[in-house]
Design brief:
2 helices, mainly beta, elongated, five-stranded antiparallel beta sheet, two-stranded antiparallel ribbon, 11% helix
């Protein structure tokens, strides 16, 4: 399904359950760092209280994120088990919940995704030799440890000269 629409005329006073999936295209992600790999699943209870529509339940969606440490892609499911929100109703007869669900999932993306965030066990190590401290040629940093017999204070005194 492309959109989750709630028709207020057909919504019982006690509310109604909505269970299903929205196509992964609802995320509109075109990025090398994040990839939607499946649909946005929902199991919601929707109820109207005067001028507001209350939505609560569970939403989830699978993604692949690029690890900030090793730069490999890993699987991660964004899941909100105790999801709840409210939407103000004006004069609409149909309320589209698609954007609200999508935004809640996107807000739960990890800020700095790492393989260790995944449910799978990963050996996350940087693959590039550029990250090695002991690589040939060193880092070009002189050893500034004080020589024997001198103190740290002597080294600090020399900074002013």
């Amino acid at each position: 399904m492309k959109k989750l629409l709630v028709e207020l005329d057909h919504l019982p006073e006690a509310g109604k359950n909505y269970v299903g999936e929205l196509d992964k295209e609802v995320f509109g992600i075109d990025d090398d760092e994040v990839l939607a790999t499946g649909p946005l699943s929902f199991d919601l209870h929707v109820q109207r209280f005067e001028g507001e529509l209350f939505i609560r339940g569970k939403i989830s969606a699978p993604f692949q994120f690029r690890c900030v440490r090793c730069l490999e892609m890993f699987d991660y499911v964004v899941e909100l088990v105790d999801f709840s929100t409210s939407i103000e109703i004006e004069q609409q007869l149909v309320i589209d919940l698609t954007d609200a669900l999508r935004e809640e999932i996107v807000l739960e993306f990890p800020a700095y995704p790492r393989c260790s965030d995944s449910d799978e066990e990963n050996d996350c190590m940087p693959k590039s030799s550029d990250f090695r401290v002991d690589k040939e040629g060193g880092l070009g940093v002189k050893d500034s440890a004080p020589s024997s017999g001198s103190s740290v204070w002597d080294a600090l005194d020399q900074l002013g000269n």
